[in-house]
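Q: I'm building a small set of examples for a reading group on sequence design. Run inverse folding on the following structure and report the sequence directly after it, with nothing in between.
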């Protein structure tokens, strides 16, 4: 009997202790969390347990929280853990209040600068942290991805590790030998955008849907009077948007021209406040329409300016020199890496061409550029820049895409060479005389990113460090085992007019945790109010990125 009494006593004590702990946890949850007001605990998370919100919250956590609280909320030193303890015992409303208010005296900043939706997404993600148990799952939780392939070796990356503000720099010394990995076939599986998911921008920026329901929105340009011109390549038309309402969407929309053949590049001539023509790059020709400021419809038929080779890499971007004497036209290759010496279809391709404004005087301005999908002229000094889709088939980390200033008469390697003196093994021994002439680009990007368009930021709406920088739209990979790209990047130039080789993620979140893709950035322009407009032909939308302050 005494023995049974002892056992009963021990069991009773254990049960009593468990009950006390449970009561203590309940009592803590009922108490104010960091002096949160009484009403905070009852506020419900509108994105609670939504997979898309948790994914977005994971990316935001990795950007803003992980450096202090640990990769999966494990805490460090005197910084509290988030995967257990008070953060898991209080309501989501209390967590949201504390993230918003912060406690500067204790080292916790206020994150009120993040949009309300993003703060709720972080809260939704935090509540999933106790479920993370294995190292692979921890990595997946940090990146917001359910893909558990090994992480890439820096400086190379993939979508799981893309987050606003992360800086990257790839040098020629980082390049692997050809065929270091197999050549992947990993085309994006496109899905509709989940309702709770938006692109993710740095702190202080707000993203909203500007326009939707489009047909392959590609190049977007701002006219001198502030109207926004859009090439809808799928429907063969040019659309105009005018004004931005209080809700961040266009005040007016009109169709400027129809019946075009995969229109892409758009340029206004002459430059300055009173253009007379709108130039359009069809896939097989440059044409122009008579135009005056404020026209919402072309005032006359298209005039043919110059024939171009069609097919293959079909995008034809346009830009004028600052003195308006030269029209630059980008023409990509017909193939991945066919030799122009033996392939007639490749002649006069993989070049940036130059014409007079009337289409005469054609010449090759720069050569060996596989697919210069985007070109732009620096408004400060007149330097031509391009963003380039490099070749495929040599492995996950070859050959990098790039952004570079363009030298007149310069040779950039395609198809025989790449990135300086590296010979493509598929053309071994060919054109040795060109090896030392291959120009190394200014900014080396992730291989297979499909960098499509670039734009200079000259407005004064964003913080001062952005002025004069480049933004580029990365359409996303198909020739890489784990996706990369699917983002907008920023190339800081530090008010020097030159790039140092670094770039940073700016707008991310277009890929879901399981690797399916809902959005593919294409082109960027600066709206009259200083916000950025980004076309996305994955969701057939335009996104607006506004700076709302920290």
């Amino acid at each position: 009997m005494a023995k049974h009494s002892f056992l009963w006593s021990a069991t009773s004590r254990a049960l009593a202790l468990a009950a006390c702990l449970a009561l203590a946890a309940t009592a803590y949850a009922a108490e104010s969390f960091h002096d949160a007001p009484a009403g905070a605990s009852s506020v419900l998370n509108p994105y609670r347990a939504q997979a898309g919100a948790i994914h977005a919250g994971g990316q935001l956590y990795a950007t803003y929280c992980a450096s202090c609280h640990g990769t999966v909320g494990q805490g460090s030193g005197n910084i509290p853990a988030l995967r257990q303890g008070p953060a898991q015992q209080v309501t989501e409303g209390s967590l949201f209040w504390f993230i918003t208010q912060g406690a500067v005296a204790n080292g916790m900043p206020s994150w009120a600068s993040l949009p309300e939706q993003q703060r709720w997404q972080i809260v939704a993600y935090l509540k999933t942290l106790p479920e993370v148990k294995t190292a692979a799952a921890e990595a997946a939780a940090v990146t917001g991805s359910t893909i558990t392939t090994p992480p890439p070796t820096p400086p190379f990356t993939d979508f799981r590790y893309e987050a606003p503000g992360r800086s990257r720099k790839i040098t020629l010394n980082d390049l692997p030998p050809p065929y270091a990995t197999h050549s992947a076939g990993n085309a994006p599986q496109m899905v509709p955008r989940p309702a709770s998911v938006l692109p993710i921008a740095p702190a202080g920026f707000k993203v909203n849907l500007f326009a939707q329901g489009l047909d392959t929105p590609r190049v977007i340009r701002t006219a001198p009077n502030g109207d926004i011109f859009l090439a809808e390549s799928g429907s063969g038309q040019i659309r105009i948007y005018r004004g931005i309402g209080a809700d961040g969407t266009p005040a007016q929309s009109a169709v400027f021209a129809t019946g075009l053949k995969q229109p892409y590049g758009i340029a206004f001539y002459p430059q300055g406040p009173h253009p007379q023509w709108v130039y359009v790059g069809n896939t097989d020709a440059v044409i122009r329409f008579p135009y005056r400021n404020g026209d919402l419809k072309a005032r006359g038929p298209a005039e043919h300016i110059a024939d171009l080779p069609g097919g293959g890499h079909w995008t034809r971007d346009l830009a004028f020199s600052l003195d308006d004497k030269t029209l630059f036209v980008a023409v990509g290759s017909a193939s991945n890496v066919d030799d122009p010496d033996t392939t007639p279809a490749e002649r006069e391709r993989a070049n940036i061409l130059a014409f007079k404004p009337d289409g005469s005087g054609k010449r090759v301005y720069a050569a060996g550029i596989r697919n210069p999908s985007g070109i732009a002229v620096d408004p400060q000094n007149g330097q031509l820049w391009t963003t380039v889709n490099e070749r495929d088939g040599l492995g996950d980390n070859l050959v990098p895409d790039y952004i570079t200033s363009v030298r007149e008469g310069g040779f950039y390697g395609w198809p025989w060479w790449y990135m300086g003196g590296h010979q493509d093994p598929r053309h071994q021994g060919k054109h040795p005389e060109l090896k030392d002439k291959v120009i190394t680009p200014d900014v080396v990007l992730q291989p297979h990113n499909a960098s499509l368009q670039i734009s200079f930021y000259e407005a004064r709406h964003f913080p001062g460090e952005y002025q004069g920088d480049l933004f580029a739209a990365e359409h996303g990979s198909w020739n890489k085992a784990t996706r990369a790209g699917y983002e907008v990047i920023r190339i800081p130039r530090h008010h020097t007019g030159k790039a140092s080789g670094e770039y940073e993620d700016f707008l991310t979140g277009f890929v879901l945790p399981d690797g399916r893709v809902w959005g593919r950035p294409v082109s960027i322009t600066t709206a009259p109010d200083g916000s950025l407009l980004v076309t996305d032909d994955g969701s057939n939308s335009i996104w607006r990125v506004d700076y709302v302050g920290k």
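The chain has seven helices and 27 strands.
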